Amino acid sequence: VIELGMPTRSVITTCAYCGVGCSFKAELRGDELVRMVPYKNGGANEGHSCVKGRFAFGYASHPDRVLEPMVRDSIADEWRKVSWEEAISFTARRLREIQAQYGQGSIGAITSSRTTNEEVYTVQKMVRAVFGNNNVDTCARVCHSPTGYGLKQTFGESAGTQDFKSVDEADVILVIGANPTDAHPVFGSRMKQRIRKGAKLIVIDPRRTDLVRSPHIEAAYHLELRPGTNVAIINAIAHVVVTEGLVDREFVASRCEDFEAWEEFIARPEHAPEAVDELTGVSAEKIRAAARLYATGGNGAIYYGLGVTEHSQGSTMVMGMANLAMATGNIGRRGVGVNPLRGQNNVQGSCDMGSFPHELPGYRHVSDDGVREVYEQLWGTPLLNEPGLRIPNMFDAAIDGSFRALFVQGEDIAQSDPNTQHVFAALGALELLVVQDLFVNETAKFAHVLLPGTSFLEKDGTFTNAERRINRVRPVMAPQTGKQEWEIICEIAQAMGYPMHYDSAAQIMDEIALTTPTFMGVSFKALDEAGSIQWPCNVEHPDGTPIMHEEEFTRGKGRFMETVYVPTSERSTRKYPLILTTGRILSQYNVGAQTRRTANVAWHPEDILELHPHDAEVRGIEDGDTVALSSRVGRTTLHAKLSDRIPVGVCYTTFHHPVTGANVITTDNSDWATNCPEYKVTAVQVDLLAEP
Ligand code: SF4
């Protein structure tokens, strides 16, 4: 068998790309990974996979991997390879020195949604128990923080309401600002299957995604709205529901509160489709037809993505969708719900694990004395009761000199965060930047310490997917760096004088279960027995919770919230007449750190600018031309692709490549409640360049 090159052993683990969380059987010959086979018993994928999960694992053994720690005194110096002992003592000493000089709040950390729950938990514990502040934030800040806020306000829980299987029972599927075919392919296929079997589809998106029209799929309605008008559209849909007598009065009366005030608000004439058709670019007739279909077509299920959250009103829009689901009784049973399609593999988990600056694990506010006391007793140290800095606050404070040191866990903020120039200025101003990552990424170019991280093939722990499913990530091979990432965090904590130690990742999960009510029934043993578990898992829900809010909402009554539409300050002008919006393609993943280093997925060496033929023609631009894309904050160069997938006045690009760098263009505008950047609306100009 070995001579034929066949695998000799296998390990069941979880894909490290998107929030679908597919399970795979990693098949090995000796220590060599031969192939990833989609696991038929995987709770999220049931034997299916996409190109990334199946083939894009080559980055784990790429020669660019950093396998030894490196330090340097200044970013002008060359990196110096050092022992783990030296890297950890250097990091701990510099963190303590900086705190002694600038104060307890002068340091902080950013956690990653690419790492395990256990790794995230240890970082936030280090910040709270060792740094003595709450300056910890997660990369979810720049993607789904409005989901956390909006769903907590309305339903009481910062998480999607359904399992993926639930879509099989949906009669009307409302997809808003999401492109599951490219970004969540396995779930996208399941959704398409349901549509082929008869479910009706409504898509709200400025761009004509594959879902709108592809073989055997045709959306009943495509509401091709102007970027930045989401809230106006959702309010108009809700207006139709209220004024045409489509409210599920029984559900609202028994399950919800604050309905009357909301009903009066939403019934106002300014929310009528006819009042917003010009603003949104969608005809009143189409809005009305879509609203009627969602409200009367049977089970109505909402799925949404970053096209909802990455706006100045991202949180308002999340609450608007929750209002609509409650008003029509589309919540609390199979086939309905409000469901965020999470981008990264562990966005849900990184948020669950307490890496927001205002929340301890399980979304409990740091000002809650009772919750803090639990951790103070267990961790043996007093905890601060005031929220710490969010990522953009950290950047601002770094520039003004009050924030001096940052620990970044597995996240390339220099490429992924908006207004690159501002991020570079902040990173360049730090006295100490510690990066824990697989590669010398764009952020690491500003770092003083590089702590090599582990790939998903080396990790031992758990990821939590978009349907709250906790999946085991089992080590397929030993860490190539010699250490698990959580071990490194513990060693830094110890070197800073705090006794932090775990024998295993399982022990960290035991501590999470001990202190977090929604995780009480979770352990590695329980996960191994069940395959996976959807939280909440506790005494009330011993087998986990596929569908939330069945009998009552987590907060008791579902709360209607007034969602006033406030236009973004980012408007097209004579100088910047087009609106740029951003997204992803199937074969690439976020900033491309992994997929760019994998030979066996189609690599597109650059991001491309999609431009409507009309906008191209008036600028003398032809397909393939090199163009300058500029906004009020920056300028970059791309090749143009003419496409009628986008409306006149809108252009579109991806952010997978550091050279073309879409975030050189995006602005500092952000969601009013959570500071999630407004990646989806940037006023730009496009000019033909004579030469590439
Ligand atoms: Fe991985 Fe997502 Fe593809 Fe599944 S759908 S294999 S989780 S990238």
TrEMBL record:
The gene is fdhF. Its cofactor is [2Fe-2S] cluster; [4Fe-4S] cluster. GO terms for cellular component: membrane. Belongs to the complex I 75 kDa subunit family. One of its GO terms (biological process) is formate metabolic process. It is found in: Membrane. It comes from the Bacteria. Its EC number is 1.17.1.9. Keywords: 2Fe-2S, 4Fe-4S, Iron, Iron-sulfur, Membrane, Metal-binding, NAD, Oxidoreductase, Repeat, Translocase. It is an enzyme of class 1 (oxidoreductase). One of its GO terms (molecular function) is molybdopterin cofactor binding. This is Formate dehydrogenase major subunit. Residues 8-64 form the 4Fe-4S Mo/W bis-MGD-type domain. Signal peptide: none annotated.
